[in-house]
Structure formats: structure tokens, C-alpha cells
Amino acid sequence: MATYRGSKGTVTVGGNTVGELQSWTLTINRAYIETTAMGDAAKTGTLDIPGGSGDLSANFDYSDTAQAALLDMLVSNTDPTPLAAVFEIDTGKTISCNILPTSAPVAAQRGALVTVSFSFETDGPIAFAWA
Asked: What is the reported pLDDT for 1?
């Protein structure tokens, strides 16, 4: 059984590594479409097209190129081009997809660092590379 450490994980967005990264989550899903008809003896269904969503949390640093790109997309009133994202689990073990940020709460608390948590939706295919 493989063992991976979260401390080795990184996220690259638009070709730039997200600085001050604390955590990330990528949820890969396929919608379930029920096909059960009246009179069927059991529930039946099929899966729709794949997609995903997730979030990444970091110590806030607007001078970080990747963090600024995500924040700038949220405050711009234009249709953005999705950003290429690479979620690295360990050296040579990555999940790649394009993402569109949907929200980014910035939080400050006395006695703690200011943090930002980006939520996003995937756009297009999701690919695993397991070298």
C-alpha cells in the first residue's frame, strides 16, 4: 500500500505554484441520472459526464502570482479563460485539470495569519499522471 504525505503536496495554477499553500481538496464526480420506470422492481440509473470541484487554502499573499490570478478572476467582470491546474500528491504523481474559481473568502483573526480559501469548479477533462 502506498503512503503519501500531505506535506509533499503542491498546486500549480496557470503555471505558477501557489505560495503559502496549507491544504487542497479535489472532488471528482459524475452525476447520477435515475432511469427507473414505473413498475420496475428496483431503482436503476446511469452516470452522466465527469466533472469536479474543490478548494485550496493558503496563507494570504496577493503578491503571489497564482493567488493573484485566482483573485483577479473573481473580481473581473469578464468571462475568464480557465486556468490550468496541477495537483501534485508526491513527486511524479499528479492530477491535472482546468479550473474556474467561484469564491475566495479571506479570513483574519487576532493572533493568527490572514488566510484565503479558494473554491473552484473544474472545466474539461481530469487526468491522472502516475510516474
From this structure: 74
Say if residues 37 and 45 touch (Cβ distance below 8 Å): no
Spatial separation of the C-alpha atoms in residues 66 and 61, rounded to whole Å: 10
What residues contact 122, with CB distance under 8 A and at least 6 apart? 26, 51, 52, 53, 54, 97, 98, 99
Q: What is the pLDDT of residue 31?
A: 96
The count of C-alpha atoms lying within 13 angstroms of the C-alpha of 66, restricted to the half-sphere facing its C-beta, is 24
Burial class of residue 21, CB neighbours in 10 A (0-12, 13-18, 19+): middle
Cα separation, 128 vs 96, whole angstroms: 6
User: Whole-prediction pTM value?
Assistant: 0.90
Q: What is the tens place of the pLDDT at every residue in 37-86?
A: 999 999 999 999 999 999 999 999 999 999 999 999 999 999 999 999 99
